[in-house]
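Same chain as my last thread, 84 residues:
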Amino acid sequence: MKTTYKTFGTCARFIDIELDGDKIIEVKFIGGCAGNAKGIAKLLEGMDIHDVIPRFKGIACQGNTSCPDQLAQALEAILMKKAS
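reply #2:
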């Protein structure tokens, strides 16, 4: 499943997420700090979204959110959509 999440309050404008079930296949941050975003994306490959959410949720950078926090919010939205 592929999805694009529009971020709020970060330099990255969007996050492209590809999942196989609950496993992360690929994450791409569109905009923002390219090196950091690519590093985070590589670390996430193969991880279960249930492990990622609590690690990334609540991390702040500029203001009350960050690219990792926005990714956690995107993954939560995906889980909620699956549950409905």
